[in-house]
Amino acid sequence: MPTPNERILSAEIEHALLALGASNRLARQVAAALAKFDADTEGMIAAGVARAIRSKSPRTSVESLLAAFAELNLRAVKAAFRTLMKAMQAFAATEVGYFLRLLGGATKAELVAPATRALADGLSRVLVLGETLAEQEARFAAYRYKQVAELVRTGVAGGQTVDEILGELTRKDGILDRTRGGLETLARTDTHAAGNLGRNEVYKKNPGAAVGQYWSSVLDGKTTPVCRANDGATRTLTAEQVAKWEANGLASVAGVDAEGPFDGIEWSNGYRGPYPAHYGERSIIVPLVNRAAPDKLTFEEWFDRQAPSVQEKLLGPSRFALWKSGKFSLRDFINDRGRTLTLAELRAEDTAAFDAAAEEAEIA
């Protein structure tokens, strides 16, 4: 019979698939909000480039065009990020409702819902990969402007026609398409961060409802090194630790040093880094209502059952040889923040084990 934590894990895996679908739909809505300005952008660039080509002062004409585009770009990006904030609010609210039902059902307790105001305040301050939403908006607007500006300046200076410049702007994989795709990816990350923020608020309002957390990753070849290494790791939660959680979408960040942000609550395998940017897609963090971790096949165990050709393809020949020697685990290949260690760094970590494995496998 499944334990309470195993039932929670099963529910969380099923929910993660639904949440991923919802996040993808919301992300497409954000990209569509930006796309509404594509026709205006195309018309403005076409007319402006034509004037610049005919002008006796093409450089001045180009800069005049780009000044006008800068204003249009800001309006477009602002509209897209307003849509993104609404998407984050919707996703956070959905996750709060689900999480209250999940924990309430497991603990048979009446749980307290976080205030709507707390969620709204948190989303305005939420950090995703070290940036607030306002900082993301400013960076994305600057990036999109720079892409278009470089195209127009180099195109006009290089003697390209209006159609050639427009082609690079509007074709599939052109600037407008690429920036929409980038925004869609960002929106998926942000909505998952918003959902995690909602869960954190539930934890904070209900100290003791969960005594720990369990890291569960997808068992396939697309799973990233950090999620491979951390699958099956656990950590203990205390009311004092949870109360200190700030508005952060991907981790309970305690500080930042030369390696980047580090988590205030260490995992059982020593990992202290933030949740990966693809959190919710390749891994989930599952609440534990007692100390018994779910009995689940971990990534390392799954990996051990794969054919050697599959193992070598995922790790590369050198790391595969180190892993096959039995002296290095998947966790050994990343540092405590999730960065993949170089071969030189792996040797520095355990020179004797590395040299023994390297000699056996003839690693340079």
Spatial strand order of the main sheet: 2-1-5
Oligomerization state: single chain
Give start-end ranges of low-pLDDT stretches: none
β-strand percent reads 5-15%
Average pLDDT, all residues: 91
Major sheet characteristics: 3 strands, antiparallel
Q: What is the string of helix and strand elements? A: HHHHHHHEHEHEEEHHHHH
How would you describe this structure to a colleague?
Helix content is 62%, strand content 7%. The chain is built from 14 helices and five strands. The strands form two sheets. The protein has a three-stranded antiparallel beta sheet. Helix 5 (133-157) runs antiparallel to helix 7 (175-205).
Question: Which structural traits does this protein have?
Answer:
364 residues; globular; two-stranded antiparallel sheet
Outline the secondary-structure elements.
Elements: H1 4-35, H2 38-54, H3 58-107, H4 116-125, H5 133-157, H6 162-170, H7 175-205, E1 212-217, H8 225-230, E2 234-236, H9 239-243, E3 253-257, E4 260-263, E5 283-288, H10 299-304, H11 308-315, H12 317-324, H13 343-349, H14 351-361
Antiparallel strand pairs: 1-2, 1-5, 3-4
